[in-house]
Amino acid sequence: MYARAAASGKHDWPTDERTSCWASFLFYDPPQAGPFLCGIPLPSPPPPITPPPPPPLDTGLRPQSMEGAFTHAPNHLVGDSASAINEGDDISTLDAGESALDSEYGRGNLNGGPRRRRIGDDDEADVDDDEDAESLASQAQHVNGKPTGKAGEEEEVELPAHACAYCGIHNPGAVVKCLSCSKWFCSARGNTSSSHIINHLVRARHKEVQLHPSSPLGDTTLECYNCGTKNVFLLGFIPAKSDTVVVLLCRQPCAAMGQGSNKDMNWDTSKWQPLIEDRSFLPWLVSQPTDQEQMRARHLPPQVIARLEEMWKDNTSATIQDLEKSAGVDDEPAPVLLRYDDAYQYQNVFGPLVKIEADYDRKLKESQSQDNLVVRWDFGLNNKHLASFVLPKLELGDVKLAVGDEMRLRYTGELRPHWEGVGYVIKIPNNQSDEVTLELRARGGNENGHYGGKGGNNNNNNHNSSGSVPTECTHNFTADYVWKATSFDRMQHAMKTFAIDEMSVSGYIFHRLLGHEVAAAPMKVNMPRKFSVPNLPDLNGSQINAVKSVLQKPLSLIQGPPGTGKTVTSATIIYHLSKLNGGQVLVCAPSNVAVDQLCERVHRTGLKCVRVTAKSREDVDSPVSFLSLHRQVQMNDTNTELNKLNQLKAELGELSSQDEKKFKTLTRAAEREILSNADVICCTCVGAGDPRLAKFKFRTVLIDESTQSAEPECMIPLVLGCKQVVLVGDHQQLGPVIMNKKAAKAGLNQSLFERLVILGCAPIRLQVQYRMHPCLSEFPSNMFYEGSLQNGVTMQERILKHIDFPWPVQDNPMMFWSNLGTEEISASGTSYLNRTEAQNVEKIVTRFFKAGVKPESIGIITPYEGQRSYAVQCLQQAGSFKKETYKEIEVASVDAFQGREKDYIILSCVRSNDHQGIGFLSDPRRLNVALTRAKFGCVILGNPKVLSKHPLWHYLLLHFKERNTLVEGPLSNLQVSLLQFSRPKTSYRGPQRYQMTSQHASQMAPSLPGGARGAPGPNGAPAARGGAPGPAQDGSVVGYIPDDVSSVHSSALGGGAALPT
């Protein structure tokens, strides 16, 4: 497919031309021949005149004259001050009306803030722009979405079938048909910062379009000339050297690999440009409606557009009138509070939020299905079948997947009877392979004899309906998610237990969790003479202070900034708590990785540790597999009968019903014995609700990375009888993962750690960092930790003299490399990439390789999945070293790198535009994590002109510029950049926000008089649970923290751009 390259006036139109066509090729033979697009002539541009009225509504008719069909209207209806549509990566996931950014960088409305979707993948963004609404109000008046005349009378207009489903514009040259839903949308922006067609494609996750038959280009379906792909987010054009012909090619693989190049046609793939720019199709492809057409159009607020898109998911024929009929009572959930009258109020607030999140998660999982998969079969070491396949939806960002997720695989071909089996994901795509590997259960079904998802089959607990696994078949397979409510059920059960069980927590912990101010009874502790413990490093002063404080208090918060030895400190605390209290210590964290790391450190001290994992992860290898409960049961030589049954099961695959019953009984007995003899039990927060731990009571609970847990998740381990709680985390780094927008906005995204800090429970901060070169820790310390971080390593210890890399200042291994390439929407339509930055990432990596840096010592961080995928491909296609070498480099999101470190970090910022802002790069916690992963050196690639519009990035760029480490030019000849920064419209309020919030919270939390169960009794004694509330001032966290409460990593305390004034 070809098209004329005349976008934005970059190419001169010939003054005299006529059209001719040969097959599907586009030729231009001036002055006699004109350009063609698949046999449809492109028009000659008219002189700048007022465009004629729209052509007749008969979509089968061609305009009698092509003159005036292309009018270069401005890209923006009101101007180029549209706020950012993206608060991150997944443009389709935010609430309508939530603009992430004001003007170019920061709107920050009460509910707007950066969000995170899932660990390993930062997809988030918004397509809405509230700022344009006010400007539009002066242009036209509307009643119920219909235009009115001067006298205010409603004009009833019957719109043609090809009218824009949002605004009603029906100019054939300005509308596009979505082939997935057969609806039409125009290129106007209306009240959003995206054109209506792009807005729809992103929200609906549709990707194929067709032009109008009466448009200048005819009813053309946009597709790649070389491979035929129709994903418009992949498509772009390449002008020929004659500057009169273009060809449409996809970005990957055709344009990248030059597969479509032809010497006769002179295709130069280096000049490839996307068809979508500034969130709109290029005007030479889809023209802009006239100002008059836009004035007369229906202007829908972003909130209405979002609701309409949601309604279309259930009823594709729904109209705006249907939306008006369905408008009812506001169903927004009640926001979380800082303090609660009693545990029942606590449950009544959090319970609905957990249910909303559960329902959303279930809907999301069960809606995902992938057909026509090609499966590669293999056997695992445990003799279980392994099915490996590529999930295209995973590559496009439509599906989220993690190790341990349960999936159902179905065979729908004709070579054998229908078959289906269930298994666990044991491998997800990485640099080495794009395949997902599923380990099938022995009989393909789940433990309960039924599927958690739809379409289950429970014949005799055997879900292989035809018996054996169809390893002889490779095609015609379908994969579905199997949704499980386990984590949500355990949260709900924990909150119910908290409300009705007197023994679930101590009275003091009960009241502090509800936000009541009560005096803690002094704990009598014989402090150890030496605080350092066996096989762990000696503690510094701030770590010793943290240990001392924790041992004497029933509730403690420890803030561990990056590299400050938080894990060592936690392991030391666990050791002393176990020795001093004599009881078992329950150690939890929200992720398996964090639990494994802490479990390994505690094991070094000589304590008896047991790692309790979900049964779905028992076959997943980890550094502490030998400490897992199921492995310790297997290694127990004292129970000969159980060992015999284990051996028999391994040989036969399954046991008889009688032997199976006996095997389970003996296994449970062995598990209870091992757990009872343990000093420390380690599991995830959700894992603490495992039935195997139900009868255990844990006096002491430590939760690591507690700032990454939603509050109900933290409650699961706490209600097992705790009397002493230690929460470890850092509220200046990334927070909980909340998928549902309403639940996040209501405050489910706020951790218990953060709420307690707001209430005046001051955290103990670790202050000596041992990770970063001092020059790398300077900015994070000053910006996020009030300059309190000290360096436990010297400059000499963090400089590798033998590594030859062009650092601008050799003693300061850091630099910001100015890259002015523009951002592009990725193939998923919900993420971004920047080809210039990706290409320069490859150059940096190759230079590191030449200097002797090993691939495992390099980490590449990018906030966007689109850039991550493109950078991986760019490394392997353009790198001069072996592909296997580049595959060993970890390329991941900010979220995936939290809690980890690399010798060298390369950060690709991606965002580079004139009007759309910088998305969730503006999240201070995300920036904090990205800047603090490197030990020996950090390279940042980005566009300083765009980033400097945000106050936080403005300070960062000034930091680099003042140290002569802001550079530009080729990597072989870097020069100090003299670029002038954009001036941010607001100042950055970082640490001050924490101080103000803490003071405000203290004022809002007066002492509560006693007498009722909802408040402490006399002298701090607890009253009866569930009684009348005290006179405390309850209030919504949303009311206290105006900036980022709706953020998925709630930044109630973490700084960020101030609200525009």
Automatic annotation (TrEMBL):
Magnesium in keyword set: no
C4 as annotated region, ranges: 224-254
Alphabetical keyword list: ATP-binding, Cytoplasm, Helicase, Hydrolase, Metal-binding, Nonsense-mediated mRNA decay, Nucleotide-binding, Zinc, Zinc-finger
Biased composition (Gly residues): 446-456
Protein name (database record): Upf1 domain-containing protein
SUPFAM superfamilies according to UniProt: P-loop containing nucleoside triphosphate hydrolases (SSF52540)
GO cellular component: cytoplasm
Region (CC/SHH/C): 178-206
Residue ranges annotated for the Upf1 domain, each copy included: 156-315
Polar residues composition-biased segments: 994-1004
UniProt-annotated stretches for the region C3H: 164-196
PANTHER family: DNA2/NAM7 HELICASE FAMILY, REGULATOR OF NONSENSE TRANSCRIPTS 1
Biological process, per Gene Ontology: nuclear-transcribed mRNA catabolic process, nonsense-mediated decay
Ranges of Pro residues composition bias in the record: 42-57
Gene3D superfamilies reported in the protein's UniProt record: 2.40.30.230, 6.10.140.1240, P-loop containing nucleotide triphosphate hydrolases (3.40.50.300)
Compartment list: Cytoplasm
Function statement: RNA-dependent helicase required for nonsense-mediated decay (NMD) of aberrant mRNAs containing premature stop codons and modulates the expression level of normal mRNAs. Also capable of unwinding double-stranded DNA and translocating on single-stranded DNA.
UniProt feature, compositional bias: Acidic residues: 121-134
Comp. bias regions, Low complexity: 457-468, 1005-1032
GO-annotated molecular function: ATP binding; DNA binding; DNA helicase activity; hydrolase activity; RNA binding; RNA helicase activity; zinc ion binding
Keyword Nucleotide-binding: yes
InterPro entries: DNA2/NAM7-like, DNA2/NAM7-like_C, DNA2/NAM7_AAA_11, Helicase/UvrB_N, P-loop_NTPase, SF1_C_Upf1, UPF1_1B_dom, UPF1_CH/ZBD
